[in-house]
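TASK: fixed-backbone design
INPUT:
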């Protein structure tokens, strides 16, 4: 990528069972470092890297928020590329113990011949609430979302110039980590559907929220920019227009509504 460009690359923007897009996965990168926020739901992740003209073996850090299939199964094709297409290098995988257990269980039966040769180069960083980690000038803080589903984490990243992004994981903003994510330059917030689509998509029983709620949370935290992800894709053709309109009614900062393979510089 061009020198000094810092961006989000959306390898997927869809919810758990998308038909017209890929499961959510975001590559945060600059010219010195990167981290993949969730790995999507399977082998289509490699196709997304290919279409984005991005080498998957360039990934240095991976954060897997929780073990739901649409957030973890892409680890299989990634590990296969690390084995077949690259020399072993140390990579950090940030995850809970439960996610680590799920990965080990998965590779016990699937693609183990690719996992074993690279296993020693994968540095699993087992997360605890409030854990800090620094890599190449990027400062991470991980927080427990306290989901009532599977154990789940979110994170903030502060870059060397002081820019802060907050990634809330797969669920809406929670009160207990509000102070940590306040005044983010970029807030990445899930938005399952429009507010008037709740009867159809039923986001709340799934522990998800609406575009309106994401925008209200961005305002509440003092975010400067709001980025949406993990969205339904039945309305993909009109998503940018309709989601942006609803978000603007509830948040005055910059708003970005991506589709797969979009890029957002910040």
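OUTPUT:
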């Amino acid at each position: 990528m061009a020198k000094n460009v810092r961006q989000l690359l959306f390898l997927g923007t869809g919810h758990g069972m998308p038909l017209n897009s890929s499961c959510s996965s975001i590559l945060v990168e600059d010219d010195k470092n990167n981290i993949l926020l969730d790995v999507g739901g399977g082998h289509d992740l490699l196709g997304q890297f290919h279409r984005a003209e991005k080498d998957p073996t360039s990934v240095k850090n991976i954060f897997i928020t929780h073990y739901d299939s649409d957030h973890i199964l892409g680890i299989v094709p990634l590990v296969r590329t690390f084995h077949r297409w690259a020399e072993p290098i140390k990579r950090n995988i940030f995850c809970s113990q439960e996610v680590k257990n799920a990965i080990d269980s998965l590779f016990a039966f699937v693609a183990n011949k690719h996992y074993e040769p690279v296993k020693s180069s994968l540095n699993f960083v087992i997360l605890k609430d409030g854990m800090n980690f620094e890599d190449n000038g990027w400062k991470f803080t991980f927080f427990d979302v306290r989901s009532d589903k599977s154990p789940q984490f979110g994170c903030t990243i502060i870059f060397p110039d002081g820019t802060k992004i907050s990634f809330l994981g797969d669920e809406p903003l929670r009160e207990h980590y509000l102070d940590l994510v306040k005044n983010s330059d970029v807030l990445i917030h899930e938005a399952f559907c429009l507010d008037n689509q709740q009867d159809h998509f039923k986001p709340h029983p799934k522990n998800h929220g609406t575009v309106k709620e994401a925008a209200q949370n961005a305002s509440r935290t003092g975010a400067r920019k709001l980025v949406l992800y993990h969205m339904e894709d039945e309305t993909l053709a009109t998503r940018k227009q309709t989601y942006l309109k609803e978000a603007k009614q509830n948040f005055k900062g910059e708003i970005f509504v991506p589709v797969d393979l979009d890029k957002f510089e910040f």
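COMMENT: The mean pLDDT is 97.
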